[in-house]
Design brief:
alpha/beta; 7-stranded mixed beta sheet; 5-stranded mixed beta sheet; about 50% helix
């Protein structure tokens, strides 16, 4: 073998032995890591909760790590990097001051640093550290920490946790994993989001860890109810001031995953609303309609869709307000007249809904939906003969009656 051929073979062998990370392009030279940074300085928030709190950005196979300073130290997501504790000590922090460790979820890149911490003899001997994790967290992790003498405190969501002297709300945010939680500090409008909300990316729903996209939407909707200014994510740089927009971006991104649409498709809000409606995701349809109306307030189709969906969700009062806006511009819109009558029917305002069905049927006698709804209103008013005289209602009534009889026979 020639020397040149031998060199080529050695290069190929070395290449084969290098660990590969799928879809990851590593820089030619590892940049200097910034180390532990002040959370208060990053967010530009002056508040006691962040006065002595630090943040370590993760890299490769480790998540971001957060240390909340105060009456004691709280570690949120200890990552998967054995060097973090030595570096923390160099900054003057005492590891024995760590009294609580909270995990946003049980993925290895967020939780394996716990075991490095437990190897520190004074911590292992003192047993003064409380581990906190969602009840749905990995059974193996809980078994291992319990065997080591640190049985974890298990959360369900909705609790208020005292961490280093400050109160943080626990929000259950499944989807990426079944055990995902976020921590919310209301006074500073700050969210520690784990992998649920990440800047400029969206975590996958890890099926092996119980993650699903519909649960992901549920978790994000809980976050949208909060006034969030700042996000401390599980990966990437913290987000200051524009946290709400970051949560919305994640919510919209998960919606796009569900309807299998990519950003390159350039889909309109109303096209998205249609696909989401086919999936039965009514709250998401309303969200899309609101986005469209923010751009084009005069879009009557978006108003109509929003009203109809609110009706289906049982939010009839809100729907009526929208239908009134449409009828003010189009008083002879028989679809909207029918929809408003339906909303009033849902509010058990049987006398009030009849004129809307009558007007709609005067404009278009063939609206079967208006006939069925009118028959229902008459029936609830005790005007049974009039109701049964409406053929579409009679057919619908008899079908439902037959269905109930068959159901009772099966149960007998």
């Amino acid at each position: 073998m020639t020397k040149k051929a031998k060199d080529v073979d050695e290069q190929e062998l070395n290449q084969e032995l290098k660990p590969l990370i799928e879809d990851e392009e590593l820089p030619e030279e590892e940049p200097d890591h910034p180390g532990w940074l002040s959370i208060g300085e990053i967010l530009k928030v002056s508040h006691p909760v962040f006065e002595n709190s630090r943040f370590l950005i993760g890299y490769h196979h480790s998540s971001n790590v957060y240390v909340l300073g105060g009456d004691y130290l709280t570690l949120v997501d200890p990552g998967n990097d054995y060097t973090i504790f030595a570096e923390l000590e160099k900054l003057g922090y005492n590891l024995l001051d760590i009294k609580k460790v909270v995990l946003t979820h049980g993925h290895r890149d967020h939780c394996m640093g716990v075991f490095e911490m437990l190897r520190y003899p004074p911590i292992m001997e003192g047993k003064t550290v409380e581990l906190i994790i969602h009840a749905g967290g990995p059974a193996e992790f809980k078994e291992m920490t319990t065997a080591a003498g640190f049985p974890p405190t298990e959360l369900k969501g909705g609790e208020m946790l005292e961490l280093s002297g400050s109160q943080w709300e626990v929000i259950h945010t499944p989807g990426h994993t079944v055990d995902g939680i976020c921590l919310y500090h209301e006074p500073t409008k700050t969210l520690i989001s784990g992998d649920v909300v990440l800047p400029d990316s969206i975590a996958d729903a890890d099926k092996a860890a119980g993650g699903t996209l519909d649960h992901y939407l549920y978790g994000l909707k809980q976050l949208l109810k909060k006034d969030i200014a700042h996000v401390l994510p599980g990966h990437g740089v913290p987000v200051a001031v524009t946290g709400k927009r970051t949560v919305e971006d994640t919510y919209e991104g998960v919606m796009m995953k569900i309807i299998e649409v990519s950003p390159e498709d350039k889909m309109t809000w109303m096209q998205g609303a249609k696909l989401l409606a086919e999936k039965g995701l009514l709250e998401e349809v309303v969200y899309c309609c609101d986005k469209e109306l923010a751009l084009r307030p005069e879009n009557l189709q978006a108003m109509q869709w929003k009203g109809l969906v609110l009706n289906d969700m049982g939010r009839c009062d809100e729907a009526i307000g929208i239908f009134d806006l449409i009828l003010a511009q189009q008083p002879d819109n028989f679809y909207t007249l029918t929809a408003k009558g339906h909303a009033l029917l849902g509010l058990t305002k049987y006398d009030e809904c009849l004129p809307f069905f009558d007007k709609a049927l005067a404009l278009n006698p063939g609206i079967e939906e208006a006939q069925v709804f009118k028959g229902m209103a008459l029936y609830f008013l005790g005007r049974h003969d009039e109701a049964m005289a409406i053929e579409p209602f009679k057919v619908e009534f008899l079908q439902r009656f037959k269905h109930e009889i068959e159901k009772q026979k099966k149960q007998a």
